[in-house]
Amino acid sequence: MAQLIDTIGNTPLVEVKSFHNNPKVKVFAKMEGNNPAGSVKDRAALNMIRSALERGEIKKDTKLIEATSGNTGIALAMIACLYDLELELVMPSTSTRERTLTMEAYGAKVTLLESMEVCRDYAEEKAANAGYFILNQFANPDNYLAHIKTTGPEIWRDTAGGITHFVSAMGTTGTIMGCSRYFKEQNPAIQIVGCQPTEESSIPGIRRWPAAYLPKIFDASRVDRVIDIAQSDATRRTRELVKKEGIFAGMSSGGALHAALTVANEIEEGVIVFIACDRGDRYLSSDLFV
């Protein structure tokens, strides 16, 4: 009989048909909201904690800390709960209330600060000076290795090796880094497309990092193209995704859909897969669906 941890991954790949008319171009959503804690970050959270335990870097009495914008924190809270580990999550105060309540429901302590950059500095300082172990998703290879082990192979299997373009939001960049490594080994011609917000836009789950805070796991050479996403386009596509396709996802998924459709309108044939990275219910207190 499966345990909850065994249900992470193997999420559905669903064709999205409402947005273009070329039968030779297929667009698929990888439904990461189907993971038990509701996002693609379940994969990285499990791999980071399990691998650290296996290496002996953390033990049952280790106090964990991590800065997060939301989804990684929720996933880590679930995994820490299952392993009976103490966890403090540091999150921007602008995050939706649903995120904080979900983390606390799993038993994590939540600290709210003014920005993601400040949260990262706080977590690193506490790890250095207060005896906490920082998982550091921004620099931890176990983040992207999760997607070499699971996400990439699942998409390759479910498209029967037919994928031509992979589209992903870029936050910690773990998903796109891992999938890029896997896909390029299978077929170097597969195009890796990343999404980042325009300069003036704020899109939860997608970041345009200042140079000093660029994730250390990020390697620009592994991304063939970066598409800038306006906040208005991410919002519009998120609303269209639920109304036209019944896919209730967050704003970064709308941004990834917009990038996927940009690619779809440029090519004559192909198979495009984008990451629908979480569920829409953790944005209900925002104006995303208003």
From TrEMBL:
Q: Which residues carry this modification: N6-(pyridoxal phosphate)lysine?
A: K41
KW Amino-acid biosynthesis (keyword) present? yes
**InterPro entries recorded:** Cys_synth (IPR005856), Cys_Synth/Cystath_Beta-Synth (IPR050214), CysM (IPR005858), P-phosphate_BS (IPR001216), TrpB-like_PALP (IPR001926), TrpB-like_PALP_sf (IPR036052)
Cofactor(s) demanded: pyridoxal 5'-phosphate
Q: Which reaction does it catalyse?
A: O-acetyl-L-serine + hydrogen sulfide = L-cysteine + acetate
- One Gene Ontology term from the biological process aspect of the record: cysteine biosynthetic process from serine
EC number(s): the record gives 2.5.1.47
Is Calcium given among the entry's keywords? no
What residues bind pyridoxal 5'-phosphate, as annotated? N71, G171, T172, T173, G174, T175, S252
Q: Which UniProt keywords apply?
A: Amino-acid biosynthesis, Cysteine biosynthesis, Pyridoxal phosphate, Transferase
Q: Which Pfam families match?
A: PALP (PF00291)
Q: What is this protein called?
A: Cysteine synthase
> What is the species listed in this Swiss-Prot or TrEMBL entry?
Sphingobacterium deserti
